[in-house]
Amino acid sequence: MKNKILKKILIVKSALFLTIACKAQQIYPLKTDYTEIPQNSYLKDIQNELDFYVGKWKANFNGNTITIFITKEIHRFFNGTKYKYYKDVLSVRYMIQNSSNVILQDTQSLAFTPEQIKHSIYSQWAEDNGNTILLYYGGTNCGVGWGNVSIKKISSTQIAWEYIPNTTIIDSAKCPPGTDTTIYLPETKDLIFTKQQN
Amino acid sequence: MRKLISWLAFTMAFCLILLSCVHDEIYTPSDPASKEYHSKSLWKEDATFIKNVMKIYSEHESAISKTDGNPVWDYAMSMGKYDETFMAVPIVKNDKVINTLVCGRFGKKVYFRYENSEMNNDFFQDIMFGTYSRYNTEPKENSSVNHKGIICTTQSVSMWYPNSETNPDAGGHWETSYYNNCYSFQDYANPGWENGGYDYGGSNGGGSAAPNNQESEDPCQKTKSIVTNPQVKASIDDLKTKSTGTLENAYKFKADGTPSNLIVGNAHTVNFGDKTGYQGGYHNHTTGIPMLAPADIEQLLQFALAQGNYGNSSAAYVGMIAPNDVHYIIQFNGNYDDALVTFSQEDLDEFKRDFQTRYGLYKSLGKTGIEKLFFSTLKDMNLEGKIILQRIENDGKINTIIKNNDGTRSELPC
Questions:
Q1: Which of A5, A96, A169, B49 is the most exposed place for a label (fewest CB within 10 A)?
Q2: Chain A partners of B363 at a C-beta cutoff of 8 Å?
Q3: What is the DSSP letter of B258?
Q4: Is the domain of B276 the same as that of B343?
Q5: Which of B189, B214, B239 is the last residue before a domain boundary?
Q6: pLDDT-derived band of residue A136, with 50, 70 and 90 as boundaries?
């Protein structure tokens, strides 16, 4: 009799465990095609490859001062129309000032909506044994300048920046004439950013 | 009791004989020299067409045959078509399928071509020589016209390979073999193909409205007429020189090829402007992903709408020139209502983010990767089957790129 009860308890426990296990979120490495995995999966920074880049970095390019502010967001939810997933990401905000210290563009002070892609820069995954991080820039107004950014470790205080924008066919219906579509981010390769103390 | 045992023994022996008969039926390839046709296919075939093609082949064998092997007609398959339009036959040498020969009828003429496809060779090899003990023919997705002017034919079979031939139920595994063939009407209309133009005298030889006869909708012919139009060609050549520059540029073209003035954009933007009166347009990419992007696809819809409700929406096209001789064109493959799709800026932003992410994952595959990228984006935009992608080589050769049912892509030379 006692054995029977014990058996029943074991079965119920196993069933419970299985139910919980089946509902558990599936975890994948950062370099995963989120369009091919179950919805609400988690792309995790398993190797802690993102941490090094967190902080404030500065560079000069064509007379402008570029300051980037990098933070790490753990388990950020990307609630896309087609694809929904969680991901550990670096989020990059930036401020660009000309030689007279006039601010040309500042996304650090902008309030983003949760699914905003415009002006956003989020990391994708690490390449080169974790020494390079690929990021996606959603572009400025009208999506102009959308493209790939990469940052590469040079030393403990320096990273090299590369930005490759794609072409955008703009349409006056969506992008009225007069809209500022200037790309302020430095479109260049091997631009050295130096880490700032604060 | 003794009677029962005898009856059981008799039944078992009878079943065994029956089984071995079936076994022979499946495995024994026909004598290549045999001129009689006795189908050993796993499916019902278009026997009339196969027999007629056999006759034509035997009359013109020296001109058609390009291999050492022999066609094994008993395994010829019409791949689910029964209107005397298509069949494929394995070419066998020393018990190995070395190629497949397909024959298509277009009106009163038939045309032949070798497929040179390892996948299709394996399909016939497995069926003819595989040591399977049973099989399951999958539901067919054949004869589907995926795109205007293009027919894709697929066939598949799953076969059980037992670990032990003497005891096939003791264990084993299933394997699936696939046959896939896509061709455009232009393939056969062009006499430059392997062989063709033989008169067909079958029951449909009068040239019925067979589905193979839609040359007027041929995407190859359409693109050829666009890119060889002297005015369009001059404009495309101009964009090629500008693709290594720093500014985006574009041209719009009227139906007769008359170009607009050069549209000079900014570093990474260009605006086609009003499309009224224009059939399509071309632009250049100077940096970034060498493929037509989500916003380019949206522009194609707008060119389609610009043809008007009673115009020819499917005449619309958008082309793209990128560094390193990359040249793609997309054609609209739908009607006016199909083009009535709108995307918000936020929709496009999301498509572009997924586009860039996939590019990072697929780019190591070269052109295969960027073409896969394009088809994934079309799917996300719910425009699958509504747009035809073609790649134009530097020497002017055009390839229509097809997404197969199994997710892979094929290219069909025009």
A1: A5
A2: none
A3: -
A4: yes
A5: B214
A6: very high
| Domain endpoint, select from B179, B214, B249 | B214
pLDDT at B310 over 60: yes
Residue B255 lies in a domain: yes
DSSP one-letter string for A84-95: EEEEEEEEEEEE
Sheet of B195-199, strands arranged across: B70-71, B86-93, B96-106, B109-114, B195-199
Contact B352/A174, CB-based, under 8 Å?
Answer: no
Contacts of A31 in chain B (CB under 8 A): 361
The answer to whether residues B376 and B251 belong to one domain is yes
Q: With contacts defined as CB-CB under 8 Å, which chain A residues touch B270?
A: 167, 169-170
For the cut 60, the answer to whether the pLDDT of residue A153 exceeds it is: yes
Of the candidates B268, B298, B345, the beta carbon closest to that of A165 is on B268
B208 pLDDT tier (thresholds 50, 70, 90): very low
Asked if residue B242 and residue B196 are part of one domain, the reply reads no
* B350 contact A CB<8A: yes
* Chain A neighbors of B271, CB-CB under 8 A: 169-172
Tell me, yes or no, whether B207 and B294 share the same domain.
Answer: no
Q: Do B258 and B350 fall within a single domain? A: yes
How far, in Å, CA of A171 to CA of B342, rounded?
13
Q: Measure the CA–CA gap between A114 and B402, rounded to whole angstroms.
A: 37
Interface membership of B244 toward A (CB under 8 Å): no
Q: Helix B345-362 to helix B294-306 angle, to the nearest 10 degrees?
A: 130
Mean pLDDT of the region B89-102 = 91
Average pLDDT over residues A73-83: 95
- Report the chain A residue with the minimal C-alpha distance to residue B289: A166
Among the listed residues A144, A141, A186, A176, the one whose alpha carbon sits nearest the alpha carbon of residue B269: A144
For residues B72 and B98, give the distance between their C-alpha atoms in angstroms, rounded to a whole number. Answer: 12
Asked if A165 lies within 8 A of B287 by C-beta distance, the reply is yes
Do B193 and B252 fall into the same domain? Answer: no
What is the CATH topology of the domain spanning A25-196? Lipocalin (2.40.128)
ipTM of the complex: 0.88
Do B115 and B208 lie in one domain? The reply is yes
Decide if B78 contacts B51 (C-beta within 8 A): no
- Highest averaged pLDDT of the listed ranges B140-144, B185-189, B352-356: B352-356
**B78 inside domain:** yes
Best residue in B356, B362, B378, B382 to probe A by mutation, most A CBs within 10 Å? Answer: B356
Q: Is residue B2 part of a domain?
A: no
> Does the distance separating the beta carbons of B352 and A139 come in below 8 Å?
yes
Kind of pairing between the strands at B269-270 and A168-169? parallel
- A102 SS3 class: coil
Mean pLDDT of B107-134: 84
SS3 assignment, position B100:
strand
Across the A/B interface, how many CB contacts are shorter than 8 Å? 116
d(CA B298, CA B317): 11
**Using an 8 Å Cβ cutoff, are A42 and A85 in contact?**
yes
Contacts A125 to B, Cβ<8 Å: 360
pLDDT at B6: 63
Whether residues B200 and B229 fall in one domain: no
